[in-house]
Amino acid sequence: MVNNDKELFRIGEITKTLGITRRILINYEEHGLLTPAVKNENSGFRYYSADNMVHIKLIRTLQNLGLSLAEIKKYFNNTSVLGEQINRLVLLRNQLDQYIAQLRLREYSAKKHEIINVTLPAFTAFCKDFNNANLSTKTVQLRKTYTEAVKKYQLDINNKMCIQVSVNTDLNGQYIIPVVPESKGKYIKTFSQVSAICIYYRGAYENFPEVQLKLLRYAKENGMTPHGYFRNIYMEGPPTHGANKNAYVTQIALPIKFLEI
User: Range of 105's domain?
Assistant: First the structure.
């Protein structure tokens, strides 16, 4: 029931309305994320305002996006330096896009080849160049590069391994194995956040050139200039589906820059 004098809510009313527990509210308070409108230090009774309720809902939203309480505190307290939080949310959005695409590919025909705009997040990776490598060679060498990265570095579980190839030929490029940002070494490279168009493709790797051509045509028709390479991000492949190539899922991305008008 509302406190008629101050229009405040008791803790039980807040937990019932928002579907959370008393322990969650106290935890927010202990982490410096929430201050009750009124708190009786002797009895421990707490009363919350409507503004408190809106604030609690925002905290829950950020948690549902995957941010920790420490990250949420930085978000609230460091409004002038938000790069870390922005990068985190971009990464989470990319992961959600990937999972949604995987589910859609299972529900609908993979022949639709829907082109969507995405932001590929910044990351650090263990990289090895390759030249004049056909598909079978790349398959073997990518696995070897992955094994080498695992033996030397801690993997970044939030980003997926990929291959980057030139828009002119897929025989030359880089094997890319994401590792934690603090990694150092000869083959460590940092990739910047970049805008891209992509197709989530379900099917054999032999068909990548057809999908890549579709992306190039779309870019040209819509006033976009490619950065000069494709990034094939492996989401589900032989480790999951074995020899069933029709079930492989790959995010085929074309980083782009928009033409200035």
Answer: 93-258
